[in-house]
Amino acid sequence: MAITAVTALSGETLAGRGLDGDVALAARGDQPAFERLYRTHVARIHSLTRRMLSSQEADEVTQDIFVRTWQKLGQFRGDSAFSTWLHRLAVNVVIERRRSFAIQRGRMSDDEDALDLLTVPPARADLTIDFESAIGQLPPGAREIFVLHDVEGYKHREIAVMLEIATGTSKRQLHRARMLMRRHLTGE
Amino acid sequence: MTVHEEWTDRLSEYLDGELTADERDAVEAHLRGCAECAAVLNDLKRVVARAGSVEARPPQADLWAGIAGRLDAARPAESPGRVMPFAPRDTRRFAFTLPQLAAAAALLMAVSGGVAWQAAGRLGSPAGLRYGSSTSAADATPNVAPPLRAASAERAGADGNGAADFARVENVSMADPQYDAAVVDLEKALKAGRGQLDASTIAIVEHNLQIIDQAINQAREALVADPANSYLSSHLVEARRRKLELLRRATALATETN
């Protein structure tokens, strides 16, 4: 296992570098360039894994995503923005993870009791964490579709392909998730 | 289902512009006369707006060290014999080439009985030992195969060899005494050489071992419930390979610095 000292990069340094250049460098095996890409994108990727999986799994899966990115960078043709390509790859890894470990078993059930799962939140100052906590309490099927559609901006047809479900199922689960999140916001 | 539910169930589609013109007109007509449904719609708008503005937060701990430690192994084909840097210990800096590490690992394996494990080929499938041969559908590169997966061909892997790999890894053994013995021996060797490594290196190694062990345990548990799942089998093989590789390299480092 190669162990490389973490390079401290200031935000000023990052801002001064062109990411396209770093993508090209990293694709040729430049690890410092890849570290810069990591530091630029890790917040979004980690947030995705945290919301789709759990805080406990997010660190490990985020690391897997960036290692997978490193492996696949040579295949990145630049047809889309690097951030878009990376995010799509990350979604793939997360979905595969969920599927592999059967986290989502029964995710599409129409269990009406699921509507009672979301607890009414206490008033808290940190609304971001509070909202994320509420996402984490959604039933798995509703949760992944809510994150993919309302947080990450994917369309129902894209989600249907990713999750191998019907578009109508995606719409129903999204509405279920929103109604649950409504309880969170309104405290009903 | 109440009358209100019949309408509220359509509000998300209304909000997202998914209804036909006639359906939209009907919903809007209802909303004009129903304060309750109008209130629900406003709440849903708030939810959507909130979700769209939720900020990304970085992980609490810096994950880079755990990534950097896996990069050389992840793309060996592009950099054969690349010098692999290790964190400086005191003022010295150690660097090893892949052949050096391979030689050290081979020696340790011979001592520890790992050679027997390898000869037996219990994990000797290409999917288990070859770098970068993961068979996960998640390997599909987005701009190579835009729809993320679904097709079995994609699930087989990007290099076209995945289907064969899948067939091989399906028979991976849950219990492998020879593998376990090799791991135990390497752990002992690492423990003996622990004093030769600096604290930060030990911390990184232990952290990664912990992560790998967690992955192994999860895969084992999942395989108990779904023993025919080929992805789980390949995941278990990969996790075990990672653990052996990490132990080999860390032990080689400790031995080399003696």
Through-space gap between termini of chain B: 75 Å
Relative helix content of chain A: 55-70%
What is the mean pLDDT of chain A? 79
- What's the SSE pattern of chain B? HHHHHEEHHHHHHHH
Largest interface: A-B, 69 and 79 residues
The end-to-end distance of chain A, rounded to whole angstroms, is 52 Å
CATH topology of the largest domain in chain A: Rna Polymerase Sigma Factor, Chain: A
Keywords:
heterodimer; A: about 190 residues; mainly alpha; Rna Polymerase Sigma Factor, Chain: A; Arc Repressor Mutant, subunit A; 2 domains; disordered N terminus; B: about 260 residues; two-stranded antiparallel sheet; 13 helices; 2 strands; about 0% strand; elongated
Walkthrough of the structure:
- The complex is a heterodimer of chains A (188) and B (258).
- Chain A is an all-alpha fold and 188 residues long.
- Chain A has two domains: 16-100, Rna Polymerase Sigma Factor, Chain: A (Orthogonal Bundle); 112-186, Orthogonal Bundle (Arc Repressor Mutant, subunit A).
- Chain A contains nine helices and no strands.
- Residues 1-19 and 103-125 of chain A have low confidence and may be disordered.
- Chain B is mainly alpha-helical.
- Chain B has helices at 3-8, 11-15, 21-33, 35-53, 64-74, 98-112, 114-120, 126-129, 152-155, 162-169, 177-192, 199-225, 230-256, and strands at residues 84-85, 95-96.
- The longest helix of chain B is centred in the C-terminal third of the chain and has 27 residues, at 199-225.
- The chains are: A mainly alpha (188), B mainly alpha (258).
